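note to self — DONT lose this again. spent like an hour looking for the file last time. sequence + predicted structure for the chain T wanted, 78 res
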Amino acid sequence: MNWSREIQPACAAAAVARTIEGLNGTVEAIRAAGGIAEPFAGSVADSKDVERIVAEVEAKFPKVQVLVNNAGVTKDGL
C-alpha cells in the first residue's frame, strides 16, 4: 500500500516500528504528500512498549479514529 496516497492532508499518521530509522521513508512520503506524520519507536511484542507508545500517540494526537495494524512475522523471521 502506498501510504503517501492513502493519508489525506486533513489526517495525521502515527507510524510505529521497532526503530525510528525504519519509519523515515514512510513518514517522509506522507509529509511530502501534504500529510502530517510522526514516528514512534517500540516493539508491539512488548506490552510496556505498547503502553508507552499509546500514551505518546494520544499526547500528540488526542483523537485517534483509525488504527491499522500492519505488524507480522514471516517464515524467515523478519
